[in-house]
Amino acid sequence: NLAYSLQMKGLQRQPQTSLSPSSSSSNPLASVKVVPNEKLHVSEPNPLWFGNGTNPKDDPSWTNRNWLKSRFHFSFAEYNNRQHNDSFGVINVLNDDLVQPHRGFGTHPHGNMEIVTYVVNGELTHQDTMGTNESLSRGSVQFMTAGSGLEHSEFNHGDKPLRFIQTWIKPSQLNLTPTYGSYNGATEEGRQSRHNQLQHLVSGIQSEKQGPVQVKQTVDGFASELELGQTVVHQLPANSQAYLVCIEGSLKVNGKTVTKYDACEIVGHQEGKSAIDIQATGREATENGDVAHLLMFTMPLVPGSGRTDLE
User: Fold this and answer.
1) How confident is the model at residue 291 (pLDDT cuts 50, 70, 90)?
2) Residue 226 contacts residue 291 (beta carbons within 8 Å)
3) 105, 164 Cβ separation under 8 angstroms
4) Helix (H, G, I), strand (E, B) or coil at 154
């Protein structure tokens, strides 16, 4: 499933965003297909498989009976639906994980994948065979080029649940030198950067316009926390597509309603830019106030990618 990504090496798409009170773009709207959260596969694996103890019978700090509740957006692990839901463009995996206090993923290997982890709530601690040991919280990103191979662990050492979204992106080439990097989005500057605007978090390493997270593929990633009624507009380049996750609250994306845990497959036009108009229609109480929260990746168009089991 890496063959076509090798052909994309060197292709670049420059992101363009604007803040607008309404859908005022002169460009035509991109098409939007909603992926309702009911279509996501929910996985709650045995804690012993990942080096954890048994689940406590009654712990008031836990918000789920099992140590992990993971929502798979694409085929992964025991969820095999590759005929209808294999990947979307260069995104191979996108898992929305809820990890309970003092639990995590023990040391495990990765290879030949760009891995971007966006922290929603709680604190995520990453440790790897390159000597990294780091903890990051809301709005932050941990990322790595798994390349020729590495091992790492991911834990919630805190007393509160941890939620993060981990995305695996197909690399531009195989067997790259493993690397690790991070971005701290929990600072005041980080919070303001995504407040009522799209923060450009992820970029291809050769892009002219760089985000703080640089991966070895033609892809851009954005996050935003929107107050009720606020709108952001992203101009999707020709021959591009995007995948958007509604993390908290609810949104309208080019007029289509998405609520917490829902996603959108967005496809632009082959000629000229296409607008993605995102409006906050519902809010959720968070540590950064009452907001709607989203994560979006844009990438070159791969015709025929995406789910085929949606009405």
Assistant:
1) very high
2) yes
3) no
4) strand
> Strand 213-215 vs strand 199-204: parallel, antiparallel, or unpaired?
parallel
Residue 43, both tokens = 């996985």
Q: In whole angstroms, what is the distance from residue 135 CA to residue 133 CA?
A: 7
d(Cα 236, Cα 276) in Å, to the nearest integer?
7
Joined tokens for residue 272: 């000229």
Percent helix, strand and coil across the chain, each to the nearest 5: 5, 50, 45
Q: Which helix (H) or strand (E) holds 277?
A: strand 274-282
Amino acid identity for residue 200 in this structure: H
Report the candidate in 127, 295, 146 with the shortest Cα–Cα distance to residue 222.
Answer: 295
Model confidence pLDDT, tens digit, residues 232-287: 999 999 999 999 999 999 999 999 999 999 999 999 999 999 999 999 999 999 99
SS3 of 11, please? coil
Structure-token match 């995007």, residue found: 242
Beta-strand ranges (E) seen in 29-161 are 31-35, 41-43, 68-72, 91-99, 103-110, 114-121, 124-128, 133-136, 141-145, 150-156
Instruction: Supply the pTM of this predicted model.
Output: 0.91
Nearest to 229 by CA among 154, 295, 281, 155: 281
Q: How far apart are the first and last CA of the chain?
A: 26
* Residues near 101 by beta carbon (within 8 Å), at least 6 away in sequence: 59, 61, 62, 156, 158, 159, 160, 161, 162
pLDDT at 14: 42
Determine the Cα–Cα distance for residues 273 and 309; give it in Å rounded to an integer: 28
Residues ≥6 apart with Cβ < 8 Å to 166: 93, 94, 95, 97, 115, 116, 117, 118
Instruction: Tell me which amino acid residue 64 is.
Output: N
* CA-to-CA separations, 111 to 9, 147, 179, 183, 209, in angstroms, rounded: 18, 5, 11, 22, 27
Partners of residue 162 on adjacent β-strands: 99
Distance CA 198, CA 221 (A): 9
Burial tier of 215 (Cβ tally within 10 Å: 0-12, 13-18, 19+): buried
